[in-house]
């Protein structure tokens, strides 16, 4: 037996990536301690985190997938046979090649989820294979904000809160108390105790809202109107930054005229708030020495209104001079290390394959979130410091189009799918549709830790290494100059592999050897750090590479002694967007109609209300950790929240079992009373039942309490330029269920997913 060694490594159970010191004996981790010497150590965060102690348990949990598994029964029968990696990779490569020969390479699609791992190996593989059909959650998480910042400012911005200077702070549609157990939440708590004014815009009275000096409970989906109302007040009361507006913005007069209709009275009525809320928020934001703003999924997931809302927020920042100024928000630098766009090798993605992108082939395509859209924007952005955005994310295929191609073979058949670190049967819109489309495919390959519900209908389930078994380098797609994480503590247990090894292995079998020069992920990451002048060893010692950007970067001068300005088509902040107009969009932010999901007979089933879905809660993360018995004890039922007055009006009591339904489907929840707007429902997401059989007929209970049985990713009701669909601000019908929920919590029962070797054969 070898002497125990202490190894640095990281947790990746949330985006914070805490550093650990692992005690390793004979290649196994026997103990874990927090590493106080490395980024992003925070005693308070760790004290509040319920997941960090799970790392050891998960590393060798009974339900982990440890070997490549090949389906032996019918799809969805959850019958598996253990195969070697070579057998799996050879067969997958051969089948992908045969399908591509028959239908073209675009017959392969992929799905990714939240930032659980690095996705550039997948994207590199897809570029070299020749398919544009990578789907993701980008359209409803991240892409809208990134795109609108870029369209307006030439690059993305982040809040730069400086106590004492940041006199006003807007938290808009995000609840870091539950979603972000990190230094940001700690900083917010500190901020709320100081002299600055904290304003939280959220229809629900969240723990974040409870810290606020003013909680503004706008009606979901109306944030764009609220933001336009703030602009109205700031312009009409002459509270804007004349110097910045005159010298650095484009289209101010048009914007000023456009917002005239959004009087405080109109806005208050439309958003269901008071006139004073509008006046207070506008005056506080404009009059502060510096104002910062952070937004979240609350406004990212509202379909048509998502881009106009982000655009209006960009205008708000700009006309109040809260752009690239200390204490407000700051334009990020590109990364010094190799950015995502180069790691994914999108420059090798041939034009003939770009032309097969459904986002452009389809008449109802998404003009901004597309290869031509990206290429149109690219030179404006690139003018400032050679910045290039992560192309695969920002051109990701719209799920509606890809599902349609699976269902109909139009405009070409999509027959194969790689699912990388996502559980689309719970997290993508319209579960019934996703289920039927996936069940019809010729080949599904899932990389996961577990036999997730999606894995249970795959042809291959491949065992993924978790953070402590792989090096981690979390970067924001190259849109900020920060990367953090650390080394693996151990080689992957059993036959698990990291995603790089999988995609490289597949690539080598498909003639891509030249483009996978690094044998290991660690070599590839070390190489990507070289341009930043940091060695892998240095990075592992500190846990971070970063450099803070300068302020007022538009005032730098170029070689011709001209101001650099902004990376937009005019060189100014585009309050009226020439870029969107050139792509067929609107120059100014206009509100759109919400999606309608309930019609005809659906409406007869019960009361018709507005619904938001998936507000983050602890201890779960989307569909993850439902196999953790302690978590299940703590949060044992899926709930739908409503205000006391709403419950009374509808005749419900806390604990009642209710159905929520739309034309798409229904799901059951338990009623919980919460402080929030009246006539609004907020339902949990991600709920499934590892203790129920995986595979047919129950499929882990995904049709019982899965809110995405009700949602839709339909392009027609989505945002026009990017295609964002709605998870918030949808309409639904609620009625009482005479039966209790289809399961009950039994503390004695094991909640682990049944281990594969017990369910096989
Ligand atoms: N109705 C509704 N739907 C939503 C949302 C909502 O608010 N409402 N939110 C949306 C948003 S913002 C997001 S980001 C998505 C999240 O959607 P997903 O990312 O699909 O959600 P998770 O449940 O976290 O699924 C992660 C899966 O990946 C596996 N996994 C975790 N880490 C790794 C890894 O390192 N490697 C591999 N190979 N597998 C791993 C887990 O075991 C799990 O099965 O959901 C979206 N869907
Ligand atoms: N515990 C836990 N943490 C997570 C995750 C998880 O699944 N679980 N997921 C991670 C991921 S992938 C993401 S993207 C982040 C998301 O983290 P957040 O951005 O914080 O997202 P949410 O909690 O979905 O929504 C935040 C708030 O938006 C409000 N809201 C809903 N609709 C509207 C609206 O129309 N207008 C306004 N103004 N507010 C609205 C909701 O009431 C909610 O309080 O969290 C990450 N962290
Ligand atoms: S779950 Fe997040 S906060 Fe908790 S230990 Fe892991 S990285 Fe840190
Ligand atoms: Mo997300």
Characterization of this structure:
The chain is α/β, with parallel strands linked by helices and 761 residues long. The chain contains 30 helices and 27 strands. The protein has a seven-stranded mixed sheet. The protein has a six-stranded mixed β-barrel with strand order 22-26-23-25-24-27. The longest helix is centred in the first third of the chain and has 19 residues, at 85-103. The protein is globular. Mean pLDDT is 95; it is low at 755-761. The protein binds ligand MGD (2 copies), iron/sulfur cluster and molybdenum atom. One ligand MGD binds next to strand 16.
Radius of gyration: 25 Å
What's the pLDDT, averaged over the residues? 95
Query: Could you state the oligomeric state of the chains shown?
Result: single chain
Largest sheet: 7 strands, mixed
What is the CA–CA distance across the termini? 36 Å
Q: Helical proportion?
A: 25-40%
Query: Hey, roughly how much beta strand do the residues contain?
Result: 15-25%
Q: What ligand species are in this complex?
A: ligand MGD, iron/sulfur cluster, molybdenum atom
Query: How many strand elements?
Result: 27
Structural class per helix/strand content? alpha/beta
Number of helices: 30
Widest sheet: strand order? 5-4-17-16-15-6-7
Low-pLDDT segments: 755-761
Principal-axes geometry comes out as globular
